[in-house]
Amino acid sequence: MVKKILISLFFVVFLTQNVFSDIVKIVDGDTIKINNEKIRFSGIDAPELNQNCIKNDEKISCGILSKEALIKKIGNKIPRCVSEGKDFYKRTLAECFVNGKSLSKFLVRNGYAFAYRKYSIKFINDERFAKKNKLGLWSMKFVYPWKFRKL
Fold it and tell me: Whose CB among 20, 60, 94, 112 lies 3.0–4.6 Å from 69's, allowing a Cys bridge?
């Protein structure tokens, strides 16, 4: 009888652990949700989803481009985030990592987001690298996201 109870308990614990796995949703190029907790990447700013850039006289949806780069980088992994508090909108501000590598650094260094100097100087060198090498958005004409939101 005790053996049956232990075996039943094992299966309940095993199934429970697998049912409640982390769910990741990419909101845009600098915001994700993990289990419905909205996490805004601190120190960077990515284009808005409805924001366009111009490359070779062609309109490019740079907000979608940034989001797709983040989707591809995360893949099927669960980011691990280090919280830095909450912002005005009650989102968690954090730097998030996949396989120990910063998603913010990746986005800025590859030109899919900008160093958000108003709040941090952490990613300025990565932005300089992307700009110098004309990576991502730096190969296009664009409006900085913080200026685009004021239009």
Answer: 112
